[in-house]
Amino acid sequence: MATVAGAAWVLAATIARAESAPTELTASTPEAAAGEAKPKLAAPNARTSEAGGTPSVRISAVPPVDADRWVITAVPYLWFANVKSLTSFRPSISTRTIDADVDVGFGDLVKRLNAGFMGAAEARRGRISVQTDLIYLALTQSGSRVRSVTGPAGREAAVDLGDEVKLKTWLWTLSAGYDVFRDDRSFVQVFGGFRYLGVDATLNWNFQGPLADLPRTGAVNTNADIWDGIAGIRGEHALGKGPWKIAYYGDVGGGTSQLTGQLSAQLAYARRWGDIGFGWRYLDYEQGSGKVSQSLRMSGPILTAHIRFGG
Predict the structure, then answer these.
(1) Interatomic CA distance for residues 116 and 137, integer angstroms
(2) How many structural domains comprise the chain?
(3) Computed from CA positions of residues 59, 63, 69, 74, in that sequence, does the dihedral angle turn out positive or negative?
(4) CATH number of the domain bearing residue 250
(5) Residues near 275 by beta carbon (within 8 Å), at least 6 away in sequence
(6) CA–CA separation, 88 vs 109, rounded Å?
(7) pTM, whole model, 2 decimals?
(8) 149 and 91 in contact (C-beta within 8 Å)?
(9) Mean pLDDT, 10 residues at a time, over the chain (311 residues)?
(10) Pair 105, 82: CB distance under 8 Å
(11) Contact 18/74 with Cβ under 8 angstroms?
(12) In a 3-state reduction of DSSP, which class is residue 48?
């Protein structure tokens, strides 16, 4: 809970500091006022006041891009995700397999979260961009988490008296893309890359009685490293002439997984330094039975802040 509260404080402080920056630019000399900016691939973000000749910033919902330099965007965010996973455990002392799940609603995430990190970044030059996203979650859930016990003869009956599952998850995405369409109101980008899922899970089980070579109580740890190639589309579109816009993202892929995919949509409000967005995000992994991590699904509301440097 302290981790999420700290992340929320950092996000709020960063936004407040950026908001305190001036929103108007005043030329110190006539030469500076008449100077031309480097060429950009969308309409400029400033206009000149007829009354005083002082350039003032007009906030574009979709910011222009610069073909001559790199612009870095940091993206701290809070994803209040509902986490559902199904993991297979194979105790070394037994021939049996125990399937146990984690099902944490986004309203319960703070109580179950031991540690966590969420953040993303983008480096852009003109129509080309490289983006990365990193999530770490450490969750603990108690109760009747065992879903099945399977032995040599098939599924066996087990009376679960209450157990505990500890789940640590790393999610890392890295991709590069190119804007196939861009104007002063929107852009559409196609991209490709990879996503990594690291799973480390521990089960402390407690059955009513032993099952052949499986003791009544015990603990087992398992882990998996899952690499998948992904491809997708993302973009932004301004709503009218003001600072509001919609941002969308979708990818699909496979490799170690049978299938993985992600979708998100946000309503964002642009500022001079970047934008603030709120929306929904969904992530899915399907591995199938017999795998350590059979499935993982995360979905829920997300709050983001895009903070630009060098643009």
Answers:
(1) 4
(2) 1
(3) positive
(4) 2.40.128
(5) 61, 243, 245, 268, 269, 305, 306
(6) 22
(7) 0.80
(8) no
(9) 45 48 41 45 44 57 87 96 92 87 84 91 96 96 85 76 89 98 95 97 86 85 96 96 95 95 97 95 91 92 94 62
(10) yes
(11) no
(12) strand
